[in-house]
Amino acid sequence: MGGCCPPMDLFRSEPMQLVQIIIPIESAHLTVSYLGDLGLLQFKDLNSEKSPFQRTYATQIKRAGEMARKLRFFKDQMLKAGLPPTKSRRQADLNVDDLEVKLGELEAELIEINANGEKLQRSYNELLEYKLVLQKAGEFFHSAESSARSQQRDESRHTGDDALDTPLLVDQESSTDPSKQVKLGFLTGLVPRGKSLAFERILFRATRGNVFLRQAVVENPVTDPVTGEKIEKNVFVVFYSGERAKNKILKICDAFGANRYPFTEDLSKQAQTINEVAGKLSELKTTIDIGVSHRESLLQTIGEHYEQWNHLARKEKAIHHTLNMLSLDVTKKCLVAEGWSPIFASKQIQEALQRAAFDSNSQVGAIFQVLHTKEAPPTYFRTNKFTSSFQEIVDAYGVAKYQEANPAVYTIITFPFLFAVMFGDWGHGLCLLLATLYLIVRERKFSNEKLGDIMEMAFGGRYVILLMSIFSIYTGFIYNEFFSVPFELFGRSAYACRDLSCRDATTAGLIKVGPTYPFGLDPVWHGSRSELPFLNSLKMKMSILIGVVQMNLGIVISYFNAKFFQNGLNVWFQFVPQLIFLNSLFGYLSVLIVMKWWTGSKVDLYHVMIYMFLSPTDELGENQLFSGQKTVQLVLLGLALIAVPWMLLPKPFLMKKQHEASHQGQSYALLESTEESLQVNSNHDAHGHEEFEFSEIFVHQLIHTIEFVLGAVSNTASYLRLWALSLAHSELSSVFYDKVLVMAFGFNNWVIRIVGILVFVCATVGVLLLMETLSAFLHALRLHWVEFQNKFYEGDGYKFYPFSFVLHDDEDE
Length: 813
Prior knowledge:
ion transport; flat; five-stranded antiparallel sheet; ATPase binding; alpha+beta; single chain
């Protein structure tokens, strides 16, 4: 949008307006086209009662759909030919009518080329099979004739009788009386090798053994003329006697998909036929090559313009689909459009309308006017590639109500931080960072490619993962863990061994010899017997502090929402009692945690909080942190108890009083003179004078109060997942390091060490960098959706979907 727009503001959605545009029918197409290029107007469907076939531009949409079908056909043909569409630098100026004609001609030509090519290829494959039959059957007949002649010479040498014509079936026939000899017929062809045994068995049974079958194996697979697939086949010659046997054989050949070819016994004619077939094959090969070359050149021509034509066809369909949402004026000379647009876009929309009127040579320009309505506008946040993924996290829960405070502003920081609290290890964080930097460096390449589902998800959230990894490195420095190994990065440890007997690193044998470790956890805690109790205490208390701070932030944002929407009831009877209740209990607990850290006291906070409710008047004794603590606890407990009816009772009664006051004396009103005003008032009455159901309001407030009171406890406890997952991550990392890597290097064997390294890498990547990352991500998501957003976020709005050709292209892809 360049410098035309105000600065991006994510906290509140863009102010929207309902606009009406009256467009002359001659400039309607160009106007909608320019508005689609602008992409800042969401049209309302003014013909929702009509079916798609009853709308004005149904025919044009059908034409655009037919063009899209032809383009899909071209794309399939190009992909089959291994010629993907290319982006042409030449932009041909082509209108839709010319494109429709051109696509029709190209489709007809391509279909004809394909049909001719298929016929020629089938003829070519048939001739190839015929040539194989001539060769293999010819060899059989030649060997049979040679065998017969040698046998005849032997017989004439022994008997001296005149030679008789020797039958070919030498193996099956013995010398018989010439008067009883039968003239045999034969068939030749090819049968799939997989069916050859069954083919032979069926022939034998059908003719009761009155056939003679010879088969010859074809070495290389043969392209079948019917299916076009390469199949291993056998050449067969079957001899039979009588027409009845012939008919049976023909039927069996058809059933087995055996292709039959004519064959002559005459050797001279066989040679002549083979030469003729070879000549025809050569001619057909040349013709097929020319056809393939012509088809490829045609597809290349289509491929050069495909993107442009496809964009034009999709654009045309989108324009007419939008025009169908416009209502036709009574005079049928104008189209009336209504839609939502951001207020800042008014000037750009008007400029687009003026440009469309000028370019279409319309004598009358479009009329642009803003309508006043009580209808809730759509929600529109202007995001960039960095903030869009965080906005998607919030929108997955629910789209913000119009101009409601947007949690995404805080999610940008709090979401990766809460993730990092559970994933704190700067070694693992570095691995995530390197993987994310690879995605960011190659983002231009990846954004133009079709990625897999998981890869596309990771690429879409690359900036979320970037911040997650940076915060993980930060919390890893605090926890002092690098693949569970501590380092003295920020100085020397504050503790040292008193003597050599404390080699087991137990705190009993450690003394403080230097200043406190400057940043994060002292490395000496790792491996000590008190490591787990210390880390448990630290992380549990830290989780409660983080949770109370974030929940307070949610309540404070509800105050800004109430002030923005000028809802005083929500300020005094929702924000104030909620703030008091939460902080009287868990805010006080947070203060005690900080004071205990500050003073180094050994007060049992469990005991303090439990007996604050069970025995609030008892003395605290050794569990007292500061003077007057008992009085403070009594006051806080009283405030918490007062806050519950404060939330529950006043708001429903005050809402009822406001409703009665707003409708008092409004039974009679001055009627407007125009029909339009009457219609507007009637619409207003339909929404404004709804019956006030006090019981519903009271029950809703009761549910809301109970939900908050119980939620204050459960939500605070829910933040303990930060402690649990952080501990689990640390312990898993420690187990993989100690039990795999360290143990493998304990052997003086390089094979075991290499195997140990491989197992450690696979476990780290598979469990800690993939499964644990997903687990921490989902838990951080839960904390934001439930514990944080339920304090202020309604999320019952609907998204702003402007008419834009860019969005249409993305959806189609």
